[in-house]
Amino acid sequence: MLDFNEVAMFVSVVEAGSFAEAARRLGMPPSTLSRRVQWLERRFGVRLMQRSTRQLGLTEAGRKFFDQCRGSIGDIVLAGREMLESNEAPCGSIRVAAPAGFFSFFKPEWVTEFLARHSRVKLEFTLNDAAVDLIAERIDLALREGHLPDSSLVARKIDSAYSILVASPAYMQARGTPRTAHSLSEHDCLVLPHPGGRSRWLLTGPDGPEAVEVKGRFSVDNHQAMTSAALAGMGIALIPAVLAVDHVRARTLAHVLPDYRRENGGLYAVFPSRRHQPLAASLLADFLAERMARFWSQRSLTAESSGTAVA
Question: Measuring CA to CA, how many Å separate 239 from each of 115, 134, 153?
Answer without folding.
Answer: 30, 27, 28
